[in-house]
Design goal:
CATH topology: Cytochrome p450
Helix content: 40-55%
Order of helices and strands: HHEEHEHHHEHHHHHHHHEEEEHHEEEEH
Number of strands: 12
Largest sheet: 5 strands, mixed
Radius of gyration: 21 Å
Oligomer: single chain
């Protein structure tokens, strides 16, 4: 998805909001949703769209409204599904998967997982993640073209796959399958027509994860990983554990979540640093800004593009009458450019503070993998600042065709390494050896 900067007297007045289609994946591959969202925030912050097949949804584009929709499960339920791909239907994972449930079910699942995926718990994983970072950056040693987006695509599973106890040989296929699930219309991931790609990806992923659970049950093993944790997790005082389908759905959610945020934040942040070289120079001059640069990269990228909710009761929102059963889409990318919250929101600023972005969502469904993503991104950009003097584009940027993930699938670059960086990186890669599970 292109990140444009609206200009006074630009295309805004010419945008017919009744003619745009925010559900169209092609808009995010080749179009300019930011121009549309900017007009919507100004003229129609709560706007109803009717699709050609008769389905409809309300869009909320202001930061405060997005927060309210994501925070209030009593008025906006997750039970029927959370993404546009299930619009008008019923998510079979409703009430079984953390992301597609409301309290008290959601609370019972989330509390133990919060502890398992807390920043404190994951700190011990940092050396392993840094080894993955070194392996990711190793191609810079040959001085040639490096496709940041392609390299980043496999980055999350190199540590999340190990955390879940999934065999390394399976990681490349799982990376592709999760991308198929979020971008089934993209020609590079579409394997059949209509909804068949999405169905096939889900079928293979669920069958694979089901097999992983059954193997453990069959051999009577409880492994010290996230799938083992899901199998042993107790949901109430009576010791009720997750059923087989609940384990599979939640393992799928963890796997998908890992591949939605981190890789696309990497590519979008590197692109922003190339387009705003003065900001990269500020970061090189003061590496202590890495944490705030990562947060700005998350705001800038807004890789999870939207979340869907359904209205549980008739309500009025900014003068619009929403009926019980209506679908509401909260556009995170728009909320993260809200002029009332972010000063000069179309400026990439590595020192931005405060930075109340909603890249990980908001409220009870705030991304449970956010601590892991932040650790990985911080370690990666710490290494980049240490090693790379400057990046330069080496080919066109190609965006993912998806209305759910604001992603980059190809972004070739070249890198000028800092003095002594090649030797430092080579020694780190040699010292690391294989990344342990």
């Amino acid at each position: 998805m292109r990140i444009s900067t609206p200009h006074p007297g630009g295309p805004g007045p010419d945008i017919d909001l009744d003619a745009v289609n925010l559900a169209d994946p092609q808009l995010y591959a080749a179009g300019d949703p930011h121009a549309i969202w900017t007009v919507m925030r100004e003229r129609a912050p709560v706007h109803r769209q009717i699709l050609p097949d008769g389905r409809s949804f309300w869009s909320v584009t202001k930061h405060g409204d997005v927060n309210d929709v994501l925070r209030d499960h009593t008025r906006f339920t997750s039970h029927r599904g959370t993404v546009l791909s299930v619009l008008g239907g019923t998510d079979p994972a409703g009430g079984k998967m953390l992301a597609a449930s409301d309290p008290p079910v959601h609370t019972a699942m989330r509390e133990p997982l919060n502890k398992a995926l807390s920043h404190r718990t994951l700190k011990s994983r940092q050396p392993q993640i840094r080894r993955v970072v070194h392996r990711l950056l190793a191609p810079l040693l040959d001085g040639g073209t490096w496709d940041v987006a392609a390299a980043a695509a496999g980055f999350p599973l190199a540590f999340t796959g190990a955390l879940m106890g999934l065999p390394e040989a399976d990681w490349p296929r799982l990376t592709r399958l999760t991308t198929m699930a979020v971008a089934p219309d993209d020609p590079d991931y579409r394997e059949s027509t209509g909804d068949s790609t999405l169905t096939a990806a889900h079928h293979e992923l669920f069958a694979y994860l089901s097999g992983q659970v059954k193997r453990r049950v069959r051999h009577g093993v409880t492994e010290d990983d996230l799938i083992g944790f899901l199998m042993e997790m107790e949901l109430d005082a009576d010791g009720r554990r997750l059923r087989h389908d609940e384990i599979v759905y939640n393992a799928y959610s963890l796997l998908l979540g890992a591949n939605v945020t981190t890789p696309h934040t990497i590519a979008a942040t590197v692109l922003a640093l190339m387009e705003h070289p003065h900001e990269y120079r500020r970061l090189l001059a003061d590496p202590s800004l890495t944490n705030s640069a990562v947060e700005e990269g998350l705001r800038w990228a807004s890789p999870a593009n939207h979340f869907l909710r359904y209205v549980t009761q008739d309500i009025t929102l900014r003068g619009q009458e929403l009926k019980a059963g209506d679908a509401v889409v909260a556009w995170l990318g728009s909320a993260n450019r809200d002029e009332e919250v972010f000063a000069d929101p179309f400026r990439f600023d590595v020192t931005r503070s405060p930075n109340r972005h909603v890249a990980f969502g908001f409220g009870p469904h705030y991304c449970i993998g956010a601590p892991l993503a932040r650790i990985a991104l911080r370690l990666l950009f710490e290494e980049i600042v240490t090693l790379v003097e400057a990046f330069a584009p080496a080919g066109p940027v190609e965006h993912l065709m998806s209305n759910f993930v604001a992603g980059i699938k190809r972004m070739p670059v070249t890198a000028i390494l800092r003095e002594g960086a090649a030797q430092t990186l080579a020694e780190a890669v040699a010292a690391d050896g294989p990344v342990p599970a």
